[in-house]
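REQUEST ID: PR-0412
SUBMITTED BY: lab tech R.K.
PRIORITY: routine
TASK: structure prediction, single protein chain
INPUT:
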Amino acid sequence: MNPAASAPRGRRLTLRPLAERPRCSIVIPCYNEERYIEDVLRCALRQRYPTDLLEIFVVDGGSLDRTREIVARIVADEPRVTLLHNPARIQAAAMNIGIRRARGEVIVRMDAHADYADDYVAASVAALRRTGALNAGGAARPRHRNGFQRALCAALSSPLGVGGSAYRDPSREGFVESVFNGAFRREAFEIAGLYDPAAITNEDAELNQRIIEAGGAVYLSREIVAYYYPRSSFAALARQYLAYGMGRARTLRCRRRLLSLRPMLPFCMVTAFALLALASVLFPSVRPALALAALAYAALVMAESLRLARRGSPRDFPLLCGIFPTLHAAHGLGFWAGLLRGARDRAGRREAERLPAP
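STATUS: complete
OUTPUT:
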């Protein structure tokens, strides 16, 4: 991606200067996160930032495990932490609940399946001040706890896995289309609106698109460091990327465009293979073309899997050979499902609810 493509253009917003140490609000959306919630809360509480300028909201979607119990125990000892209820359960709605309660000039999103550097908040504030962006964040750095996650981390570092997405590259610095989680100036929600409360996935990219369309900027900084834990099985990965594809299609339906064509590549691949397969049934002469396309794709997947396995662990090779097709097929099929759902529901562009200005 060309970083300049997402830089402020046209009607650039003029923002008031941000204080050196503004009040910050951390919002943590969660649901059934008993394995991770205490760790992410400890990350939030040990931030190297003035304690009187930091508040933390955990917005729970009615967890059925011990999540709420764990948070309540921490709340009893830490007045900076507040537990809120999210009846809609999904993350976008949770973020909106936290944003409405937040008093901070900067609102920092922290997802539960992640670890955050002790200077995560401070580095985010520094990037916002330095760049004039409405949202600043770091790269999505994957971290593993088992063999499948190790192989998946390797796949997510590959252009074949993520299509050269800038926010997947920890070495990148500059204006981009989206970042991992993000730290938002409060004005972002006053100007571009809150999260789309009906978006089950892709809510972050859709919000960042609205920020850019409104004349704001999204900035990726190498200094903002966080690690997340990806899915740990083929089934979970397929479900996740099916939902991602549906979310991308929903963004296209609602915004009428995407900031780049990269998210549509799996959709194009799935469509091309489906058309070739259908044509080969009707016209036997097309079968060699289908076979050639399948062999070329298999060779590409195997070559990249071998390269990554040599760089990492040889045991990852068979997993990688299955992970790449899972990523591509699930995302492409999800995009198709999202388009078909939109045609059925006649979903259209809607105005986002804005946070009232103080």
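NOTES: Confidence is low (pLDDT under 50) at residues 1-10.
REVIEWED BY: pending
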